[in-house]
Amino acid sequence: MGAGSGIEALRGGLVVSCQAPADSPLHEPSVIAAIALASQNQGAVGVRIDTPAHVAAVRQRVQVPIIGLWKRQLDGCDVYITPQFQHAAAIAQAGADIIAIDATLRPRPDGETVASLIQKIHADLGKPVMADVDTLESAIAAAAAGADLVGTTLYGYTAETRHLKPPGFDLLSQLCKTLSIPAICEGGIASPAMARTALDLGAFSVVVGTAITGIDLQVKAYCEELRRDSAAEC
């Protein structure tokens, strides 16, 4: 799948983030692939997948574009979404069409920068880059560095934005008005109506994760609410 067609296929549609906590029984390549296929069958225009093993399993079962990433916690570094080129390369090798990276202004390991990482992904892997950002400033910098699309993914998850709660509709509006590259709304979308609002604000597409595929978190939230005022147990 070519870079242009991969991005264009996402226009105006739903991208389902098919992920599960590492300690969940759902954190199995075959299970993630089944969830991805179910999403495609019901009309999702793309999927967002973490880890090379999961990307490879999903690639065998779906035809829609895969936004791939690899969450890695590195000592002394807050950046964890595809932090280094080696992680991007592994995701690309596994079959991802688009590589998602943390594109905040936070320091990266080994002196790498957002600009150098994007350049190397383009040159060595031939893949478009989705820049996961937290602020307009980081989005502008990512676009200037050559990012092919940006997402509101890290709004509310960095020191600068932790006082804010997703969805970042305010940030999304700013991105759509300021940037010439596609802006994707990701994070905090909890209903079809909210997804529609994101598109109405100018989002190129909408990524939904927990509200659709987050079984562990959803069940936990329901059970905690039921226990709050009673002795009921699940």
TrEMBL record:
Query: What Pfam families would the database entry show?
Result: NanE
Pathway stated in the Swiss-Prot or TrEMBL entry: Amino-sugar metabolism; N-acetylneuraminate degradation; D-fructose 6-phosphate from N-acetylneuraminate: step 3/5
Q: What's this chain's function?
A: Converts N-acetylmannosamine-6-phosphate (ManNAc-6-P) to N-acetylglucosamine-6-phosphate (GlcNAc-6-P).
According to its UniProt record, which reaction does this protein catalyse? an N-acyl-D-glucosamine 6-phosphate = an N-acyl-D-mannosamine 6-phosphate
PANTHER family of this UniProt entry? N-ACETYLMANNOSAMINE-6-PHOSPHATE 2-EPIMERASE-RELATED
GO CC annotations, alphabetized: cytosol
Q: Name one GO biological process term.
A: carbohydrate metabolic process
Keyword presence, Transmembrane: no
The protein's organism comes out as Thermoleptolyngbya sichuanensis A183
State the protein's name: Putative N-acetylmannosamine-6-phosphate 2-epimerase
Keyword Nucleotide-binding listed? The answer is no
> InterPro entries recorded for this chain?
Aldolase_TIM, NanE, RibuloseP-bd_barrel
> What GO molecular function annotation could you give as one example from this UniProt entry?
N-acylglucosamine-6-phosphate 2-epimerase activity
| Annotated family | Belongs to the NanE family.
Q: Which UniProt keywords apply?
A: Carbohydrate metabolism, Isomerase
Which top-level enzyme class is recorded in the Swiss-Prot or TrEMBL entry? isomerase
Its EC number is 5.1.3.9
Q: Its domain of life?
A: Bacteria
